[in-house]
Write a structure and sequence with these properties.
Length: 164
């Protein structure tokens, strides 16, 4: 699947992703999606399309541990975030909710570039716009299985627990 890159910088905190005041009114991902990045990119929510991918710099998802910052991204039809690094909490919340966090060098990806994420435990990002292939940090098989199931709860419903 070809994904359209949507570019953000370093230190994108969870309140930039979705303002914490928004979760007081509603937790429905389809409602939250309309407020995605409203504080730093007011037109983003109206322009996002399923199949877009967020591309950021370092420390994506820093700040509070609110899970709704992942829920809002998923509600917009975004299934992966590429970043140079993630906050530990956002990374775990992403996996646990079925959003793929991809750690790679994002410095040469531009707004609107067409990307393809390939591989299993060994990931790479192909920039179809520039022809460059960017290696990504591998994801353990269990994390890929959780993401593939749509998150931790669906994974447990399907498998009854982790393999021994």
């Amino acid at each position: 699947m070809i994904l359209r890159a949507r570019i953000f910088g370093d230190d994108i905190n969870t309140d930039y992703i979705i303002a914490s005041r928004r979760k007081r009114d509603n937790l429905d991902p389809q409602v939250l999606r309309q407020f995605l990045f409203e504080e730093i990119a007011p037109g983003f929510a109206a322009s996002v399309q399923p199949g877009d991918v967020i591309v950021a710099g370092k420390n994506f998802g820093c700040g509070s541990a609110m899970e709704v910052a992942v829920t809002a991204v998923l509600g917009a039809g975004i299934r992966a975030v590429l970043a140079r690094s993630f906050s530990r909490t956002y990374y775990r919340n992403a996996v646990n909710n079925g959003l793929m966090p991809v750690i790679c060098d994002t410095s040469r990806i531009g707004e609107g570039d067409r990307l393809r994420i390939a591989g299993g435990e060994t990931l790479s990002v192909s920039n179809e716009t520039t022809g460059e292939t960017i290696p990504a940090e591998p994801l353990p098989g269990i994390m890929l299985a959780i993401i593939g199931a749509g998150g931790l709860a669906p994974y447990f419903r399907q498998h009854g627990g982790f393999p021994v």
